[in-house]
Amino acid sequence: MTVEHLDSGEILSQATAQGDRVYLCGLTASDLTQDIKGQTQEVLDKIDDRLAKMGTDKSKLLSANIWLDDLRRKPEMNEVWKAWLGDLARPARACVGAQLELNVQVEIMVVAAR
Fold first, then answer.
1. From 42's CA, which of 19, 33, 86, 109 has a CA 20 to 30 Å away?
2. What DSSP string describes 74-103?
3. Which residues contact 53 (CB under 8 A, 6 or more apart)?
4. Residue 9 has pLDDT above 90, yes or no
5. How many domains in the chain?
């Protein structure tokens, strides 16, 4: 079976797909001066972009892994997450605290069908 790669670099691909599954890499915000809500929205916008390039969208999300630098900010991140999904079904999800790169407050990795 063929494996597709999106923007494959020296360390990782932005996305890979095999058959009817698309796997995105862990995405972080580029503008690290933003608060948790701003960083979350930027990451979700990146997810929309990568999924579209791979022929799918957030309505087909299967799972999400979310890492936060401070779990006390989870309610703020969830507010943006819920608004982004709207009335769509929620994917299976894990959200954990982690030591992230300097000023990175959130990292999200998703898997979607297409």
1. 19
2. HHHHHHHHHHHHTTSPPPEEEEEE--PSTT
3. 6, 15
4. no
5. 1
| Interatomic CA distance for residues 2 and 64, integer angstroms | 24
| pTM score | 0.96
Residue numbers of the domain that contains 46: 3-113
pLDDT tens-digit readout, 97-113: 999 999 999 999 999 99
Q: Is the pLDDT of residue 8 over 90?
A: no
Over residues 26-40, the pLDDT tens digits come to 999 999 999 999 999
